[in-house]
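Much of our argument rests on the idea that a fold can be written as discrete symbols. The amino acid sequence and the backbone structure tokens for this protein are reproduced below:

___
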Amino acid sequence: MLHLDIMDGHFVPNLSFGIPVVEAVRRSTSLPLDVHLMISEPGRYVRAFRTAGADMLTIHVEAVADPRPLLEEIRGLGACPGLSLNPPTPVDSLRPGLDLCDLVLVMSVMPGFGGQSFDPAAPEKLRRLRAMAGADLLISVDGGVNRETAGICAQAGADMLVAGSALFSENDYGRFIAEVTDLAKKRKATRV
């Protein structure tokens, strides 16, 4: 799948792209589009991003007072609803909407800029989330994911690994993806 980071310059201090780019990506691929809304007022935009081609829509728990109505709306639009949380946000903040999620995204860096170092507290957060949510929830991790951290994240409970800077710094994307996938599979088999 492709993970698309949407940044508005308000919720995070950077801008990325918006609906027209998601539409263009959708026209270019049949891969699932995992659209991560790092934006203020995500409720204003979920319908437009779904119409643009998002298969999964993840909102930040920090961006909404009550995630439940928006998660229900996302599901009603036929997309997979997800919640994300920033490094300082406790895992327990997800409880009010967790039962409505198909996906939770644990940020292992502060969102907004690529190339940051992996937060060493992220694996414990992944373990707590996996214990709290059970096996059916997809758990994703984003930020500082590379050859050194991929296996650690998989072993801690992550099912999906989002790699940006590490991937794009490689000459052979396919080889990098295969290596990280192999590392994650080996460590996932040894989850505790």
About this structure: The chain has a mean pLDDT of 90.
